[in-house]
Design a protein that fits this description.
This protein is mainly alpha-helical. The protein has 2 domains: 3-383, Na+/H+ antiporter like fold (Up-down Bundle); 399-564, NAD(P)-binding Rossmann-like Domain (Rossmann fold). It has helices spanning 3-24, 29-40, 52-72, 75-80, 82-106, 111-122, 126-135, 142-167, 174-209, 213-233, 238-250, 255-279, 283-288, 290-314, 319-328, 334-345, 351-382, 385-401, 415-426, 438-446, 459-464, 480-493, 509-515, 523-538, 543-580; strands at residues 408-411, 431-435, 451-453, 472-475, 499-503, 519-522. Strands 3-2-1-4-5-6 form a 6-stranded parallel beta sheet, sandwiched between helices. Helix 23 (509-515) links the parallel strand 5 (499-503) and strand 6. Helix 5 (82-106) packs across helix 8 and helix 14 packs across helix 17. It is globular, with a radius of gyration of 28 Å.
Length: 581
C-alpha cells in the first residue's frame, strides 16, 4: 500500500473516532486533533514526520481561519463596543504580555523571547469560550459581553503580532523592520478598503448573475489566495491577506453564503494545522521539565485569571461579573498556537521553552470548561450586585407589562416572534415580547414595540411580564429544554393557560405535549403542508378544497405521531413488565 495513502487513512480514522469522542463530551474538536497529533507525531508513534509540505498545507488552515474572522469583522459593531474592545481588551493583552515578560526576565529568558511568550499567553480560546457561553445563554450577560469584547480585541491583535514577532528575531534592525512592515500593511489596508470594497461588491454582483455555485466558490477561493499571496509577496504574513479578504467580503451582501461555503475547507485544513501542532509536542522533554509545564498552567489559569479580575474590577464591574469574566479568559487560545509556531520558526524560542509552553497551553484548554462552569456557580453565590441588576431588569419588564392585561406573552423576538407580533398588533391584541438579544431588543424599542430584555424560562421574568394576567403564552424559538422550563413555570402558576410552542421538527412533539403544551407547531410539517398548498393552488385546485385537504393532512399527521408515541410507550411498559416478572 502507498505510504501516503496509508497515513491519510490512519489520520482520517483517528479523526473520526477522536472527534466523535470529544463532541460527546461537549468539548471542541480542536482538542481531538491536538491529541491525534501528539499520538502520531515524530516524538510518539512517528507516523507523521515533520516536512515542509505538511507545514505549508497546515498553514492554509490558519489562512482560512483568519479569512472567517475577517468575515465576522464589522466596523459598526466595533465602534459600538469600542470602549470594552479597545479598553478592556487592550488592557488584558498589555497586562498579560508585560507580566510574562517580567517573569521571563527573572528566569533568564531574553526579552525578545519573553515578549513573544507574553503575546502567545495573552490569547484565549474563542472556539471554547464562545461555544460554552452560547450553550449557557450567557453571551449577552454582563460577563459574556466583556469576555466577547476581549476575545474580539485578541483576534484583531493577532494581525500586528504576526508582523512584530518575526521582527523580534533581528533586534539590530527592529525599528526599521517594524516601520517598513507597518507602512506596508497600512498601505495595503488602505488599498484594500478604499479600492477593494467597491471592486469586490461589483465583481460578486457579476458572478452571482451567472447563477453558478461552482463559479461563486472559485471566486471566494481566488480572492482568499490572491490576497494571501499579495501580503506574502509584500513581506507580510499570508494570514494578514486572508483577514483583509474576509473583511472585504463582510461588507457585501454575500457574507453569510461565503461563510457557509468556506467552512468545510476551513475546518478540515484547520484540523490538519492542530494535528501538526500536537505533533510538535515531545513528551520526553515535557516530562524532564514538568515543573515548567505546571508553572505555565498555573500562570495561564491563576495568573492570567487574577490579572483579568483586577482589570475588570478597575473597569467598574462588580465582583461576580469580574470573577466570571476572568475565569472565561483564563486559558490559552488557538492563535496562541499560531504565534508559538511562528516564534519557534524564527528561532526566538528554544525547544526547552516551546515544549513546556505547548503542554501547559493544551492543559489549560482542557481545563477551561470545568473552570468556567465552576466560576459560574461561585459567581452566582458571590453577587449581590447581580441580584440588584436582575431586580432592575425585572422592574423594567414589570413596567412594560403594568398597563396591559389579557395579553399575549411572546417568548423570543426573532423572525417568528416578530411575525406573530405583527398579527397580534393587527388584531389589536396587546402583547409583551421577551428576548435575550440586547441589540434586537434595542432596535425593537426604538421602533416603539413592546419588547424587553429577559430570559423567558425564568419564573421571575414570566411573572414580571404579567403571567397571572396573560391570555396566552407563545414560545417562538425551537429550543426544547428551554420550552419545557417555560411550560413547567406556566403550568405551575396557570394550569389552564394556553401555551403554543414552536418545534424544529416532530421528534419532540409528544415530549412537549406531556410537558403541558396546548399546541406544538413543528416547522417541518407546517412547511411541507404550505408547500403542498401552494403547489395545488398553482395547479388550479379550488382554494376551499386545498384548505380542507391541508387541514385533514395536518390532523392525520399529528394523530399518527400520537399513536406512534403511544405504541412506543405501551411496548416499553410490556418490556418492563416481562423483565420484572
Amino acid at each position: 500500500m502507498h505510504e501516503g495513502l496509508r497515513l491519510v487513512l490512519v489520520l482520517l480514522t483517528a479523526a473520526v473516532l477522536a472527534v466523535a469522542l470529544v463532541r460527546a463530551m461537549h468539548l471542541p474538536s480542536m482538542l481531538a486533533y491536538l491529541a491525534i497529533g501528539i499520538a502520531v507525531g515524530p516524538h510518539a508513534l512517528g507516523w507523521l514526520q515533520e516536512s515542509e509540505q505538511t507545514g505549508r498545507l497546515a498553514e492554509f488552515g490558519v489562512v482560512f481561519l483568519m479569512f472567517s474572522i475577517g468575515l465576522e469583522f464589522s466596523l459598526p459593531r466595533l465602534m459600538a463596543m469600542r470602549w470594552q474592545v479597545f479598553g478592556l481588551g487592550g488592557a488584558q493583552v498589555v497586562a498579560t504580555t508585560l507580566a510574562t515578560l517580567l517573569i521571563g526576565l527573572t528566569g533568564g529568558i531574553p526579552w525578545e523571547a519573553g515578549l513573544a511568550l507574553g503575546a502567545i499567553f495573552a490569547m484565549s480560546s474563542t472556539a471554547i469560550v464562545g461555544r460554552l457561553l452560547a450553550e449557557k445563554l450567557d453571551l449577552h450577560s454582563a460577563s459574556g459581553r466583556r469576555t466577547m469584547s476581549v476575545l474580539l480585541f485578541q483576534d484583531l491583535a493577532v494581525v500586528p503580532l504576526l508582523i512584530v514577532i518575526p521582527a523580534l528575531s533581528d533586534t539590530s534592525r527592529l525599528a526599521e523592520q517594524l516601520t517598513i512592515a507597518l507602512a506596508q500593511s497600512f498601505a495595503i489596508l488602505l488599498l484594500v478598503i478604499f479600492v477593494g470594497r467597491r471592486l469586490v461588491q461589483r465583481w460578486f454582483d457579476i458572478v452571482v448573475r451567472r447563477k453558478s455555485a461552482e463559479l461563486f466558490m472559485l471566486n471566494v477561493l481566488w480572492i482568499t489566495m490572491a490576497l494571501a499571496f499579495l501580503t506574502d509577496w509584500a513581506g507580510l504574513s499570508m494570514t494578514l491577506g486572508a483577514f483583509l479578504g474576509g473583511m472585504l467580503i463582510s461588507e457585501t451582501l454575500y457574507r453569510h453564503q461565503v461563510e457557509a461555503d468556506i467552512r468545510p475547507f476551513r475546518d478540515v485544513l484547520l484540523g490538519l494545522f492542530f494535528i501538526t501542532i500536537g505533533a510538535l509536542l515531545d513528551l520526553s522533554i515535557v516530562w524532564q521539565r514538568i515543573e515548567w509545564v505546571a508553572l505555565v498552567l498555573l500562570g495561564l489559569v491563576a495568573g492570567k485569571g487574577l490579572l483579568m479580575l483586577a482589570v475588570t474590577r478597575l473597569s467598574g464591574a462588580d465582583t461576580s461579573v469580574a470573577f466570571r469574566t476572568a475565569a472565561q479568559l483564563a486559558q490559552a487560545g488557538e492563535f496562541g498556537f499560531v504565534l508559538l509556531t511562528l516564534a519557534s520558526g524564527q528561532r526566538l524560542l528554544t525547544p526547552e521553552v516551546v515544549q513546556p509552553s505547548l503542554a501547559g497551553m493544551l492543559l489549560s484548554m482542557l481545563a477551561a470548561p470545568f473552570v468556567i462552569e465552576r466560576a459560574r456557580e461561585i459567581g452566582e453565590r458571590l453577587s449581590r450586585d447581580e441580584w440588584m441588576q436582575r431586580a432592575t431588569g425585572l422592574q423594567e419588564i414589570a413596567a412594560h407589562a403594568m398597563n396591559i392585561g389579557n395579553h399575549a406573552i411572546v417568548c423570543g423576538y426573532g423572525r417568528t416572534g416578530q411575525s406573530i407580533a405583527r398579527f397580534l398588533a393587527k388584531e389589536k391584541i396587546p402583547f409583551i415580547a421577551l428576548d435575550m438579544d440586547a441589540h434586537r431588543v434595542q432596535q425593537a424599542l426604538t421602533a416603539g414595540e413592546n419588547v424587553v430584555f429577559g430570559n423567558a424560562d425564568r419564573r421571575e421574568v414570566l411573572l414580571a411580564a404579567g403571567l397571572e394576567r396573560a391570555r396566552i403564552v407563545v414560545v417562538t424559538y425551537p429550543d426544547v429544554p428551554s420550552a419545557i422550563k417555560v411550560l413547567g413555570i406556566v403550568r405551575g402558576r396557570r394550569p389552564g393557560l394556553p401555551v403554543v410552542v414552536r418545534a424544529a421538527d416532530d421528534a419532540h412533539l409528544e415530549e412537549l405535549r406531556r410537558a403541558g403544551a396546548t399546541e406544538v407547531v413543528p416547522e417541518v410539517i407546517e412547511g411541507s403542508l404550505m408547500l403542498a398548498a401552494q403547489t395545488l393552488m398553482r395547479l388550479g385546485v379550488p382554494l376551499r378544497r386545498v384548505l380542507h385537504d391541508v387541514e385533514e393532512a395536518r390532523e392525520r399527521r399529528y394523530e399518527l405521531l400520537r399513536e406512534r408515541y403511544r405504541d412506543v410507550v405501551d411496548s416499553g411498559k410490556e418490556t418492563d413488565n416481562r423483565e420484572g416478572s
